[in-house]
């Protein structure tokens, strides 16, 4: 177990440096420097031997697993990869990392990960747990948009809600839907809906300005979530000036009679608020497949 000696630099200097960790081939921490301790919010003794999986959201962990096997050469580096870490306080941090493979006596020993300090804490995602809070969070988000919309971050605002399992946002053009982003919350992988796919009936409904809702009975075989579940796959049109320019899609548990109306109202707000940010579809943008 290795502890990085404390630095004599100022707090301002530290904020500009990168945290460094090392993980073994099972993803367990084998080295944590002082900045990494601060980043994760835990002392070295509580981090050493833990799995990095415990500090990543699901999508980031999947991405990390896909990147690590490609590292095969001494002192070779990946391009920066963007991940979302979750610290001990349950705050979410979007960071860039660079990975290299460490060798000892010519043999691969572990992975070194340099964490670039973006200093962005994604608290709006973690802090929104009820629909009563959602309008304020959406207003805050829209007010911070610059030139382009971070569609994936917008999806993340919804997956923090207990009854929302998945969210997708699409651009409608030439009677086809092109996905802008999607996000999944905590749910068994075998229950997830493929949000890259849609149907002709869905497109037909939203083009007329109507929601399209399908009820699904999904069976999970995993752990405490085993059993049959009834969930709704609902698409709400994003409208401006009487025309549909996109779709906001939710896979959710219909636990409240007001939930459908709440989601429809959110889509109505976002349809007007985000219309001016919509980029004309590119020729190479992939469209979703039709079932």
Plain-language structure description:
By secondary structure, the protein is an alpha+beta fold. The chain has two domains: 11-116, 2-Layer Sandwich (Beta-Lactamase), CATH 3.30.450.20; 123-290, GAF domain (Beta-Lactamase). The chain is 25% helix and 32% strand. Strand 1 and strand 2 (29-32) form a beta hairpin.
List the keywords.
single chain; Beta-Lactamase; 2 domains; 5-stranded antiparallel β-sheet; disordered N terminus; disordered C terminus
Q: What is the CATH topology classification name of the largest domain?
A: Beta-Lactamase
Could you name the CATH class of the largest domain?
Alpha Beta
Measured between the Cα atoms of the first and last residue, the distance is 53 Å
Global structural class: alpha+beta
User: In what range is the share of β-strand residues?
Assistant: 25-35%
The outline comes out as elongated
Share in helix: 25-40%
Number of helices: 9
Describe the sheet with the most strands.
5 strands, antiparallel
Give the name of the CATH superfamily of the largest domain: GAF domain
Mean pLDDT equals 77
Spans of 5+ residues with little confidence (pLDDT < 50)? 1-16, 73-77, 119-127, 279-291
Q: How many strand units? A: 12
Order of helices and strands: HEEHHHEEEHHHEEEHEEEHE
